[in-house]
TrEMBL record:
The chain crosses the membrane at residues 282-301, 313-333, 353-374, 381-397, 403-419, 426-447, 467-489, 501-522. This is Uncharacterized protein. It comes from the Bacteria. The keyword rRNA-binding does not apply. Keywords: Membrane, Transmembrane, Transmembrane helix.
Length: 659
């Protein structure tokens, strides 16, 4: 009896041990499989499921085994007439996490009745880490695959990955670099999610920001757009959401009428989506243009003060271009201060941009004092006409650049037009606040996604950017001047001195400055820092433990010197960089590895994929009389997270004779 009890106890203990430690063992296993091991695992799983596949090498040297892409092509089961091939890209890291679900998707796709071919591409090194900014090459599976497509117009791609945040919605990304997903592909994707009742969000709805170059879209998508391949990216937070992709493949019908319409916008309400395509946008601009001309020509000089309004306009119309020049000049002054004042130039980019706007407000306030001192016109009509004229011009100027922004500037125009007669201080403040509303979503999206180098476009701007920025700010600056005019009128003293005018003008400017400062603080704290507040990795250069060994062999038996660089590592490196520099001739003439010659043909950098083999050779040829320095740098993980060890070996090769 006691033996049975003991046996049950031991079995329970072993079961408990399995439950506790098996997930940890699996996790350790997943962390271990990297590089070529992960690529080999992908092949094994596909072979076990009886799928035909072929290997796409990242470094096709013929000698060494580096990570590689694995491709599964599924031919159409129905007659296909000039149908594009659907590419579905999955990183090998995601495949390792969810092999059963992804293999099930491949199997279901194979059995579907389709009139178009589908290729599943399991990409290597797509789950890369940008830990070494000084390293020039990020050779990964997506870039390698996209760059080797013969004709991008014969394909469209759906890129998928899985988020670590399981509580988030699925996300649909529609921009890469400065390019965007065409409407037909975005619409099919959105409809697939809606029909499956899968919650999703579209972080890049405001496509115009990306096309203008103010933000850089998804890097993986950019590799396909560069090769002329239309694409979209899906990020799943739960593996069950992959059914939306299955639904997309099932319902896709190739069409010869697929237009490359990228100037669109859409709104999703409940379970319905409303799309505005390029034709509707153009038609809206034309109708709006007729209405604007009608308002400006017919209604501007009407009413009981029409004679005085015509008189003011005929006398002071030159004030309009002068005010525009002052607006542009104020931005240049702000830009100069941001660059040359240390306490501003050392702040984060959001603070710098806010400082540029604040200084612009100060300059415009000084311009107002200049008007008062010279007794130039400060009537509400002149300011009102200027703001309507410029806001109307903005609609057409910015719509020519990107027609999707028409609705933003049209809404601003209507707000300005219907509040043009506001004269009381409170109504002017309300008008100013309402004018901000159309732009708030753009501001929020921009500062939530912008990188420090990108925002420099707005801080250290050229002529074109400053003019465009001044046109956007001009209506707000005019309302600000109307507020100053109102403050002057409120004061009962008609002989108000310039000193007193300057006093309340700068007090008002201080209030605006406080609002801009509050905006900069809130944006920095709750928007900008959430994206940029990551912990930078530590790179250690510790010489106590040596893992990297290099040796070079030269052969002068032919007209050129043939060299073999043997690289040996005691443990797996995360990344390896190789460069050869020479102060004399071109350092490398030919090699079995791809390379890029830099610094006026004096340095050659080799493209080595991440997680290289522990032992590999680079063969290259040079002129016999060329002396050179070969530098090999490897990075290794340490016991501490986000910490890496760097080892460098340099070898001098004389041009006199082979060694």
């Amino acid at each position: 009896m006691s033996f049975n009890v003991l046996r049950k106890f031991l079995i329970s203990l072993l079961l408990l041990n399995y439950i506790i430690f098996y997930p940890q063992a699996q996790s350790a296993k997943k962390q271990f499989l990297k590089g070529s091991e992960l690529s080999l695992y992908t092949e094994q799983m596909l072979e076990k499921s009886d799928f035909s596949f072929h290997r796409l090498e990242l470094a096709p040297t013929g000698n060494d085994i580096f990570p590689f892409n694995v491709n599964v092509r599924l031919e159409p089961s129905l007659p296909a007439v000039s149908a594009k091939t659907m590419l579905i890209l999955v990183s090998q890291e995601d495949f390792f996490e969810y092999p059963e679900e992804i293999l099930s998707l491949v199997e279901k796709t194979k059995k579907m009745k389709r009139a178009f071919p589908v290729e599943f591409v399991f990409t290597a090194l797509d789950d890369r880490n940008n830990i070494f900014p000084e390293y020039k090459f990020f050779l990964q599976g997506t870039e390698n695959f996209a760059g080797n497509l013969d004709d991008g117009s014969e394909y469209f791609a759906v890129l998928i990955n899985f988020s670590k945040n399981t509580k988030a919605k699925a996300e649909i990304f529609t921009t890469g670099g400065k390019s965007s997903t065409p409407m037909w592909l975005a619409k099919e994707t959105v409809d697939s999610f809606l029909s499956k009742n899968i919650p999703f969000s579209v972080p890049q709805k405001l496509l115009s920001i990306y096309r203008a170059g103010l933000l850089f879209g998804d890097e993986q998508m950019a590799a396909f757009f560069k090769e002329g391949v239309q694409c979209i990216k899906l990020q799943f937070s739960k593996v069950e959401q992959i059914s939306a992709l299955e639904n997309f493949i099932q319902n896709h019908i190739p069409s010869q009428n697929e237009k490359n319409d990228v100037h669109y916008s859409f709104i999703t309400l409940a379970n319905h989506t409303f799309w505005i395509n390029e034709f509707k946008n153009i038609l809206s601009v034309e109708i709006f243009g007729i209405l604007v001309i009608l308002f400006l020509v017919c209604f501007t000089f009407t009413g009981k003060n029409r004679l005085q309004s015509k008189k003011d306009f005929s006398r002071y119309w030159l004030f309009i271009p002068a005010m525009l020049c002052a607006s542009v000049f104020s931005l240049y002054i702000g830009q100069f201060c941001c660059k040359n004042l240390a306490f501003i130039s050392q702040a984060n980019p959001v603070i710098q941009f806010a400082a540029k706007l604040f200084i612009s407000v100060i300059v415009i306030s000084v311009f107002f004092l200049f008007q008062v001192h010279l007794k130039l016109p400060v009537t509400s009509f002149i300011y009102g006409f200027m703001i309507i004229l410029v806001s109307a011009a903005n609609i057409f100027l910015f719509s020519m650049a990107d027609i999707t922004v028409f609705w933003v500037f049209a809404l601003e125009y209507f707000i300005i037009y219907f509040t043009r007669n506001s004269s009381k201080l409170l109504s002017l403040i309300i008008s100013f606040s309402l004018m901000l509303l159309p732009f708030l979503s753009y501001v929020a999206v921009y500062f939530a996604n912008v990188n420090a180098p990108d925002i420099k476009i707005l801080i250290s701007s050229g002529k074109q950017v400053n003019i465009m920025l001044s046109l956007i700010l001009f209506p707000f600056q005019i309302v600000w001047l109307k507020i100053l005019v109102r403050l002057r009128v409120i004061n009962k003293d008609k002989s108000l001195s310039l000193k007193k005018i300057a006093g309340f003008t700068f007090i008002s400017a201080a209030i605006i400055a406080a609002v801009i400062t509050l905006f900069a603080f809130l944006t920095t704290e709750f928007v900008y820092n959430k994206k940029h507040g990551f912990e930078k990795p530590q790179i250690l250069e510790d010489s106590t433990e040596k893992n990297l060994f290099c040796k070079i062999f030269n052969d002068d038996s032919s007209m050129l010197r043939s060299s073999r660089l043997k690289i040996k590592s005691k443990k797996q490196a995360v990344r390896c960089s190789v460069n050869i520099s020479s102060g004399q001739n071109t350092p490398v003439l030919d090699s079995n590895y791809s390379y890029l010659v830099l610094n006026n043909s004096k340095t050659a950098d080799f493209n080595i994929p991440d997680f290289p083999p522990q032992n590999f050779e680079i063969e290259f040829s040079t002129e016999k009389n060329t002396s050179k320095i070969v530098t090999v740098t490897s990075y290794y993980t340490t016991e501490n997270q986000n910490e890496f060890k760097k080892e460098t070996v340099s070898i001098f090769v004389s041009g006199d004779k082979a060694k």
